């Protein structure tokens, strides 16, 4: 009876679509299309997949803070675009995720809007009079303690970067974008378990700075407990000034004067000119292709874009999809990373101060010559270079997509966790320690995992090289995957693995996020794997000559995959309180 109620034309259409589906396969997974010609992505419930992503249609926000994610979704629901939401989220993270979210740091943003993808470099710059001598001890060796003093503080770029993004791409007024952060700083927010823990752990250090003690502790001998309400009244007043007058108070007005005063009273190099001369820079994105996808990545002074594209170019020379997630796949991935990181450590610098051979490094023919060096039975013997100090992992990333097809991938940082541990009095602004990441003298390792290259030496007005890697993967000119991560040099390897997991191995974005990660950065010559990495695979890699060490979790990717039917998002479970939400 039911069959008789269906119009005959519909039966023919259904049969036709089903027949066509048998001829087609999903471009990502390689699996046949579903019934009636629908792409597999049209289905929400998939019983063959262990990890389920967040699903939405009208927009999505993925951040390392559940509070910030909620604010981003609120902006989208109010009619704001992805750029509006990104600005609001960035200011909120300065309140709720103080170890990485910031006003006193800097970072990189990729924006896809109006059919084009562009990058905004708001990396910190060196004050004009800072020198290498600020970071050397009496024996002319690098003084690690210097990273927590005012000379290590770079001119912050975050406020200028957010304002530049909003002025070019924003759709809502500026003032409401800062109001959520002001409300949270003024009325307070509940302290999470991890924030309470990290503040307790770092109290003996942070309380050495009166501004930090006032900002992050209820009293000299007290710490916040989980569930306590933390208020940031000084930061609220700073945010109100930025809300009312944009960047002017921060770079030329009352906030700038307070920053300079604090710096000069404590041996720093800041002048009003250093702040007034700061500019966020719009740069053309680096463009690469991986299989049938376009990779839009951050150009120097980020090293991430070059390293990601170079790694993928090498990986593309091998049939890794056929191998699956096997020892052979991991071996080739590791060798590609080692080769890319060798180039990264040798050539990358601020392009305004050095000639960086970007075109050669991301060239497909160059990748082919590197791929030909890889042997499947044993690891490559590469020059060991300089021993390096590991990069600090305390950065944060967020990804946002709106209903109009706009997308933002943003990574920003204070460098170390809580930066220099210095809060400018009466402002609530926690300052970065980014200048310590420059190479300060030939033969001395940089503080963030870079060789002490001449190109990355400290110079006034210069931006230090970074591993931050906001990335947008496009399919037919439209965002397909928006991704990024914190984690120092592990940012690059985390982003590469998420991209490869999706494109090469057909994983949904949640599975691609949850897959155990590896890391190799050329020096030291150690293959790090996460806890829980397959033991048999590790043994096969050791048989190929890799020195495999189980270390710790790597990165905190915040990712959104855009399909024909839905938005799929995943926040990394490796850091607490991260959350992805869909807009209404």
Observed structural traits:
584 residues, alpha+beta, seven-stranded antiparallel sheet, 20 helices, 21 strands, globular, disordered N terminus
Structural write-up:
This protein is 34% helix and 16% strand. The protein has 20 helices and 21 strands. A seven-stranded antiparallel beta sheet has the order 1-20-19-15-14-9-8. Strands 7-4-3-11-10-2-21 form a seven-stranded antiparallel beta sheet, covered by helices on one side. The chain has a three-stranded mixed beta sheet with strand order 16-17-18. Helix 5 runs antiparallel to helix 9, helix 13 runs antiparallel to helix 15 (327-347) and helix 13 crosses helix 18. The longest helix is centred in the middle third of the chain and has 21 residues, at 327-347. Mean pLDDT is 90; it is low at 1-23, 25-37, 386-390 and 442-451.
Q: How many DSSP-defined strands?
A: 21
Structural class: alpha+beta
Largest sheet: 7 strands, antiparallel
Low-pLDDT ranges: 1-23, 25-37, 386-390, 442-451
DSSP helix count?
A: 20
Q: Write out the strand line-up for the largest beta sheet, numbering strands in chain order.
A: 1-20-19-15-14-9-8
Shape: globular
Radius of gyration over C-alpha positions, nearest whole angstrom: 24 Å
Strand content: 15-25%
Give a quick rundown of the structure.
This protein has 20 helices and 21 strands. Strand 14 and strand 15 (478-483) form a beta hairpin.
Write the layout of secondary structure elements.
Elements (H helix, E strand, L loop, with lengths): L7 H14 L32 E3 L2 E5 L2 H12 L4 H15 L9 E8 L2 E7 L35 H12 L5 H13 L1 E2 L2 H9 L1 H4 L3 H7 L12 E2 L2 H13 L2 H4 L2 H12 L6 H5 L4 E4 L1 E5 L2 E5 L6 H12 L4 H4 L3 H21 L10 H4 L2 H8 L23 E8 L4 E7 L9 E2 L4 E2 L40 E5 L2 E6 L6 H14 L5 H6 L3 E2 L7 E3 L5 H9 L4 E3 L7 E5 L4 E5 L7 E4 L2
Parallel strand pairs: 17-18
Antiparallel strand pairs: 1-20, 2-10, 2-21, 3-4, 3-11, 4-7, 5-6, 8-9, 9-14, 10-11, 12-13, 14-15, 15-19, 16-17, 19-20
Helix pairs in contact: 2-3, 3-4, 3-5, 5-9, 13-15, 13-17, 13-18, 15-20
